[in-house]
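Reminder to self: tokens first, then the designed residues, so the page reads top to bottom the way the pipeline ran.
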């Protein structure tokens, strides 16, 4: 079933989303082709950027989302920047499973923050909004993540994702067959570029998983 997502009016002038929903996924513990491609990409990034400062033109795209809601992106880093910093330090990326690794590959290639969620663990319609007082969730390999006054995706149960970290509740496992990818960009981000970003993600997910697309749109 197609997930319905809406952006609340309060943040429509701040953020834009690219969303893709996949079905008939077969998530494996690892994909050797993907891991080889990740290693090649990591080498290319280290050759291109000596430090994160060299990539700031691209990283500032997501950083601006944080700044517009009063967050310091140097203290709460976008997930894409955190990944790039690991790569540039030659620290190994966490290898979780084939779909999460694909998400990391796409985030590094695009240098944009992506959310990835198991559709079977999302309940009802989804809204992108600012987190409320005392709202948050258990993170993946992390403690409680506070989303008060932060951009967050929320369903009928509550918040489950943001541009920095996703929740344990909706995380991808080897049993995931339907998944939702979300690309977070500023409201003034070019539509044609976002379309290209979404198409790239769709291409890579299908390349490594031979799945089907249920829904693809920009919001």
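Designed residues (219 positions):
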């Amino acid at each position: 079933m197609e997930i319905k997502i809406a952006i609340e009016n309060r943040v429509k002038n701040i953020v834009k989303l690219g969303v893709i929903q996949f079905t008939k996924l077969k998530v494996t513990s690892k994909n050797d082709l993907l891991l080889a491609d990740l290693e090649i990409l990591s080498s290319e990034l280290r050759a291109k950027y000596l430090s994160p400062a060299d990539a700031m033109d691209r990283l500032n795209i997501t950083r601006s989302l944080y700044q517009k809601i009063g967050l310091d992106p140097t203290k709460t880093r976008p997930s894409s920047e955190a990944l790039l910093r690991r790569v540039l330090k030659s620290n190994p990326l966490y290898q979780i499973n084939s779909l999460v690794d694909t998400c990391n590959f796409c985030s590094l290639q695009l240098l944009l923050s992506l959310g990835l969620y198991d559709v079977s663990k999302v309940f009802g319609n989804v809204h992108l909004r600012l987190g409320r007082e005392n709202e948050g969730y258990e993170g993946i390999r992390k403690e409680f993540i506070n989303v008060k006054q932060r951009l967050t995706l929320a369903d009928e149960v509550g918040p489950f994702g943001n541009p920095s970290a996703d929740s344990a509740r909706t995380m991808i496992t080897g049993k995931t067959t339907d998944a939702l990818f979300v690309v977070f960009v500023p409201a003034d981000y070019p539509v044609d570029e976002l379309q290209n970003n979404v198409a790239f993600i769709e291409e890579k997910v299908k390349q490594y998983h031979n799945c089907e697309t249920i829904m693809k749109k920009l919001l």
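The radius of gyration is 16 Å.
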